[in-house]
């Protein structure tokens, strides 16, 4: 059977992230992607048995020091940057890097965040940032840095 190309594997990873939702750790996404690629490429029974044993391995640690990528986009309006960064500060999240672009009436931002000092779980950070985004009519996507890197690996 032919090998999958990078675009096909990336699409599988995107679908895995959607399927896993709040459980989308790097290890979980890698496992789901590997299983899908295995099914598509027809790997043998030995590999299938090895992956069956891997189901009992605990997921990637989401402990303190976890970095996340926040991406937001939508129509530009006053106070977006202040709203997003104020909520991150309230969550005790440190902004490591930030890139923002306003193209005519459209706003885009990507923020690298260290959530290591936050007392709030990743899922709550994701939900609270999505609510802030909704208040500005933005689409906000929050991902673990590992997931982001896995999806965009060359």
From TrEMBL:
It comes from the Bacteria. InterPro entries: ACT-like_dom_sf (IPR045865), ACT_dom (IPR002912), UPF0237_ACT (IPR022986). It holds the Pfam family ACT_6. Transmembrane segments: none annotated. Residues 69-143 form the ACT domain. Coiled coil: none annotated. NCBIfam families: PRK00194.1. This is ACT domain-containing protein.
